[in-house]
Task: structure prediction
Amino acid sequence: MRNSHDVGAAASTAGSEELRARHAQVMPAWLTLYYDEPIELVRGEGTRVWDSAGREYLDFFAGILTTISGHAVPELTQVLHGQADRLNHTSSAYLIRPMIELAERMAELAPIDPPVKAFFTPSGSEAIDAALLFVTTLRQSNEVVALRNSYHGRSFAAMSITGQRGWSASSLSPFQVSYTPEPYCFRCPFGLKYPSCDVACAEDLRNVLETTTSGRPAALIAEPIQGVGGIVTPPPEYFKIVKSILDDFEVPLISDEVQTGFGRTGDSFWGIEGYGVRPDAIVVAKGLGNGLAIGGVVAKAELVDSLRANHISTFGGSPLTSSYAAANVDFIVDNDLQGNARRIGRLLWDGLKPLEERTAIVGELRGKGLMLGIELVDPADGRTPNAAAAATVMERARERGLLIGKGGRYGNVLRVTPPLTVSEDDAGRAIEILTAVIGEQQ
Ligand code: PMP
Result:
């Protein structure tokens, strides 16, 4: 039999080496894989996954912060099976009850002044596109302000507001984009130190607006914590200052909550709420579907309703994905996964923080809740990005049964982002493994 779907999901007999060779033959050259010997994950349960050789891992990357409630959660798979047995797809030409219910739920939860509406898509990138379409249409402006070191997705529009050359495969842009400095204290773009810097990176937005825009751009878009950029976590005042400058110019704020949403940052349900600011729109994906392909824009109704042409997403908010996403959002809220992110996030923080002092290779631990980053540096100067060490730590952690991620524009930031259902024991084990493998790099 040729295809694994013929023989059942976990029954692949092909070794991962053979699969890797086939990957090289038919998949794009730039679709890079983690690890010297890439692994094929074939099964998951809660915070654990298994590869095709039967090895078990603690999953502390969660499919790039996506399986937020964990793998194969019985309450959720039950909803999925039930809906799959009834009806997968109808299109938005018909009333879709679960999509409407999901939109109502999102409108309730969003940190946005009502009335609020939602539009669903099959990915984060498309949701970003939709948000940008709404603001540029309402404001009749093609100017967008984004942050340096940002990541917003793979479409032309999303790439054009992505502030990292490593993730911008094309310079083509539907927008006139201005970049404002990133709030990256460890590598301050102005060479200053917080707090004596007076948050100059936030204040510089006024200059960006005055000197590089017409003064009336469509919006500013920002991730509350830059994920792909290396868990770059702004100082507490950052977004308040940004918002007050935006208010002076009457510019809307879009919060890209694709990574920071649904309680991941622990202290608040939305990343931007942790900064005491209310945006005009949020973009969601990843955790919303716990692995199913769904994203969305949740925004002030006037933004969503601004289009004067027909517009659809064939798959966006299908019965299958929206019923599952709605169940997943209920699961997150009912089980207070945000509270767990706060509690276990604190344990991880306390367990990993001593590495900053103890090991010269750790430049900084940063992040919030269960969105943590460990920036690795050259021990000789405590600053030069150490991508080689990050790659080695990833390998060694995997050998000991822990999967983590990597990011940062120099590829030197470890990303520790487990499902929000992670237990104290899981956290303890991850601390033990990371302490050992980082310690070995001295
Ligand atoms: N925004 C952010 C902050 C992201 O991290 C990502 C994905 N890494 C996206 C948007 C794009 O989402 P997708 O990959 O689902 O298109």
About this structure: The chain has a mean pLDDT of 96. DSSP finds 15 helices and 15 strands in the chain. The pocket of 4'-deoxy-4'-aminopyridoxal-5'-phosphate is lined by residues 64, 123-125, 128, 151-154, 223, 227-228, 256, 258-259, 285, 295 (CB under 6 Å). The CA atoms of residues 345 and 370 lie 5 Å apart.
